[in-house]
Amino acid sequence: MGISSQNSDLFDGSIHYNVSLGIHGNTDQVSRSVVQNACNISQASTFINELPDGYDTDISGLHTSLSGGQIQRLAIARAYLGAESGMLILDEATSALDTSTERLVMNSLIESRKNKTILCVSHRVASLTEFTRIIVFKEGHVAEDGSFEKLTESQTIFKTLLETRQTSAYSTTAAIPLVNTPTADNRHGLLRKRSSASAEIQPMDDCSEEPFLSKSTNVKGGANPMKSDGPFNELFDRLFRSFQFFKRVWLETKQEWPYLLIGYIGSTIEGLQSPLQGFVIGKVVAGYALHTSDQITASTNFWSLAMIIIGMCSLVAAVMNAVGFGYAASRNMYKLREKIFQHVVYQDMEFFGDPMYTPTNLELVLADSTEKIGTVSGNLLADILRSVIVVLFIT
């Protein structure tokens, strides 16, 4: 009997030695071909061949640098050798693997099982599609028992889990690129099935930009009013998408309208600053053309005081701008991060198996992308309003 659990341990020695421990007896008598075959089945050979010493690599110090998936694949290879003509038990043995690697491992194990009986305990129902018998437990009791075909004929718990867990990675997310593949049998069809509430899933060729972790926004009417045929088609399309993006961000920020109003007033005053300064400087210069020194002094003092008042108003406006738009942007970033985090924590493990949605990438979305969106609802709004005021005042 061979057993591979979720948290498997490796021992000091070479990779060959660790895998050969699955066979009871003298490990020195285990041939390299037997170990290589087991590692090929567990897909461990893909990273072993990249190591300098291959199967002779001493993992005494390397153990800490191996990923969880690499350790699990070595443990599966070891358990496979221990289950020769017996039973192979996999207790969440592939929990650290991505979905594609997990499917390769499970398919290899099933194809090479020969006289082995494979007992797999897993919460990833998508990895159980090739098993001859599937038992579903609910609250400690057997709820369903049968083959894959039997459990997917009607609306069973297993079928619901299969559909839900496969579509959970797509629900509340934007367009996720999928490679176009020919229509397969019922099993693969179920794996691709998604609910009507999920977001759009576009083919890889149609995805020109990286997906954003939020629901996709459809334009009312389904048509792009700025889109036209001709050389400017792409330019108009980009401008339209940018407009829709800004519109959506600003609509999300409108709940903070009291602070936005403070920011608008501050930006308006700041926008008037440059034209008024130019006007005052012109008056100061014109004052030097007066006839008497008293008139020149009085004119200079008056417009100097006006310049001081403009400076004080600019200081107040800068504070209003920073407080109003800054607080609104912070609140917007907080709500956005909260929504993203809530969506992420409720995803199934298959979601994190996608290279696009690794913990590192999701952390980057929470930290960096939300900050950039906060800038759109903060500093960018202030800059646009100041520029508009300057242009209107000059014209």
Automatic annotation (TrEMBL):
Main location: membrane
Subcellular location: Membrane
GO cellular component term of the entry, any: membrane
Xref: PROSITE patterns: ABC_TM1F
Pfam families: ABC_ATPase (PF09818), ABC_membrane (PF00664)
Membrane topology: Multi-pass membrane protein
Stored SUPFAM superfamilies: ABC transporter transmembrane region, P-loop containing nucleoside triphosphate hydrolases
Domain of life: Eukaryota
Domain (ABC transmembrane type-1): residue spans on this chain: 261-395
Stated name of the protein: ABC transmembrane type-1 domain-containing protein
